[in-house]
Amino acid sequence: MTAVAGEKAEPLVVVLGAAGYLGSAVVAELARRPVRLRRVARPGRLREIPAAARGDASSQASPWAADLSRPGAVARAVAGADVIVHLVAHIGEASAWRAAEHDPAAARVNVGPAHDLVAALRARRGGGPPPVVLFAGSASQVGRAGVIDGSEPDEPVTVYARQKLAAERALLAASAEGVLRGVSLRLPTVYGAGPGPLGNGVVTAMARRAFAGEPLPVWSDGSVERDLLHVTDAARAFSVCADPDRAGALAGRHWVVGTGRPVRVADLFAAVARSVAAHTGAPPVPVVSVEPPATATAADARGTVVDASAFRTATGWRPRQSMPEALDELVAALARQRAV
């Protein structure tokens, strides 16, 4: 769509990592807004996701295939962008942070694009306000247990959390310099069925085990608490920050985003088992206590609950999804997937 002379053009929003679990949900959410969308993902990935997650409802959504690890790829992908949503992460079989613990190449994906993005935006500096950059951080960057509200000092205890912190600091330093307007949203565990792929998080992994009739292993007594945020609620958090006119009140800092409603891991797994049983008609698989494996990190034993009141006050955002219904939706989506 071409702007009429004298009218303000709709902002161009570029989503890096648009074909991923969270990226698909963010694209679907942004497609409802009056923006031009550019969906950036690795070659081949954009064709793998359903239309509902591609932003096809928007007449101004366009795909952009790119390997962002190649020189100049980030600069080309974000050319002309008013808002950039940076969701690129090194994802392994189980989760992004576990992949980072064991793969020395993870830093190239988790940190490298942030530096490339800063360099690209510094090179294009000129008239007009700097672009908004929304970054998907992690609540684990704090590195402590208990309730966090975003005011705590950062003491990350995993490789992934340290990499996320390094990328965030690069973006926020560039924000202080005026190169961009940086906003980091630090997320807890994201789960649930969204418009795109189901992902490989712990909740999905446990549901798959339950469908296979396998016990659900909980480390130690399962008393560690987690704050779980539904993928569509996480996507809405990015969407409300994607308005360039709102960026001034949000830029230059990180915000913690979560539900503030902790759940014990043992109780979560038991709820997954019950939901799967309701679909299969079989008795719920047992939740069994096991010793943590040698690959466990200090983060596994630390429960974190997010107090997102500052973000709610600044944006009006609130989580909408309740866990029982969200688990049933996820289990139903897995059941459909298994039936194909």
- Give the radius of gyration: 20 Å
Record the strand order, biggest sheet: 3-2-1-4-5-7-11
Say which CATH homologous superfamily of the domain at 12-190 and 230-258 and 306-319 is assigned.
NAD(P)-binding Rossmann-like Domain
**Rounded average pLDDT:** 89
Count helical runs.
Answer: 12
Q: Report the β-strand fraction as a percent range.
A: 15-25%
Distance between the termini: 38 Å
Secondary structure: helix percent: 25-40%
Dominant shape: globular
Query: Uncertain spans, ≥5 residues at pLDDT below 50?
Result: 1-5
The biggest sheet, with number of strands, parallel, antiparallel or mixed sense and barrel status, is:
7 strands, parallel
Architecture per CATH nomenclature, i.e. the level-2 architecture of the domain at 12-190 and 230-258 and 306-319:
3-Layer(aba) Sandwich
Order of helices and strands: EHEEHEHHHEEHEEHEEHHEEHEEHH
CATH-defined fold name of the domain at 12-190 and 230-258 and 306-319 = Rossmann fold
Structural classification: alpha/beta
Total beta-strand segments: 14
CATH class of the domain at 12-190 and 230-258 and 306-319: Alpha Beta
